[in-house]
Specification:
The chain has 3 domains: 119 residues, no CATH class; 96 residues, Translation factors (Elongation Factor Tu (Ef-tu), domain 3); 114 residues, 3-Layer(aba) Sandwich (Rossmann fold). 44% of the residues lie in helices and 19% in strands. Helix 2 packs across helix 3. The protein has 10 helices and 11 strands. The strands form 2 sheets. The chain has a 6-stranded antiparallel sheet. A 5-stranded parallel sheet has the order 9-8-7-10-11, with helices on both faces. The protein is globular and about 80 Å long.
Length: 351
Amino acid sequence: MKRIELLLLAAIGLLSASWLLSDTLWPQPLTYFSFRAAFMQYSGVIAIGVMSLAMLLVLALVRRFPYHLFARTHKWIAVAYLALVFHSVALTTFGYWSQPIGWLLVALMLGGSAAAVQVLLGRVGAGRKVGGSIETLTHYPELDVIETRIALQPGWPGHAAGQFAFVTSDRREGAHPYTIASAWDPQDPHVVFITKALGDHTRRLRERLQVGMPVSVEGPYGRFDFEDDRRRQIWVGAGIGITPFVARMKQLASVPGDKAIDLFHPTSVYEPAAIDKLTAEARAAGVRLHVPVSGRDGRLDGERIRSAVPDWASASLWFCGPAKFGQSLRSDFVAQGLPAAHFHQELFQMR
């Protein structure tokens, strides 16, 4: 998010500098009407320029009413953007088009318009979609979680542990994002998703999904990849945030690594079947597993992690779970001397 903010600020600075080469915010003679006219041109240039950049970001990034309605706003925004492009072309001072500010606007509006057309045609991510079918469904009732294994058709490029994908099981509902919970094996092309009933859509999955049902999978996306130069790693997968760590453990079970790893999985509900499976996967991967149950052991915090891992200062910490919990752990560890660059948090928010 910080990079996006810096990108938008840089765009405003570049647009402002280019505009000032062509015009001024201090017209002579200075009157209310002359200043208003100049400011309207300036603000219009900034607005269409930033909106153009935002339309391009929709392609790259693609928060309280249902998700499928939120997703449809991308198309509504595209229609509004194309109307703004027409408005800008019609009202921008004609002399600007032969100067740097005009050239910059043309480049931005062409890029934004191309992005808007792709959104309207439903072509965003089309080149990264493959078909598949549901092979198995495993329900963990105490956790209200479903594990879904999907066999993929040819075309999937492979994925790394920690990445996510968009899955469509109902065209009317559209695609929803889920973290991948399986290692990639080209000899057995499949993906596994672990989903918790948290919203309208996920609460209906248990009744709607069936073995053999066709689905489409788009991806993979994401950079929560466990790659760093630390010899030790501490993982914290809170609740359903355990998913990327499950994928990484499956990968390590087949291709062992050289890092010492402690995995903390704080949970409020102890589901024996799920924990037994997690324990077996951790053992196969050579990962030391800690499962604090909040009602029995209290809330997991930085002090408890440091007590369990005495050489924590030489480690990197990888977190996936509730955002506020992650921010709290980050502040705690940084205050104790952990370099901020060694704390990695998955920011899994689509809106």
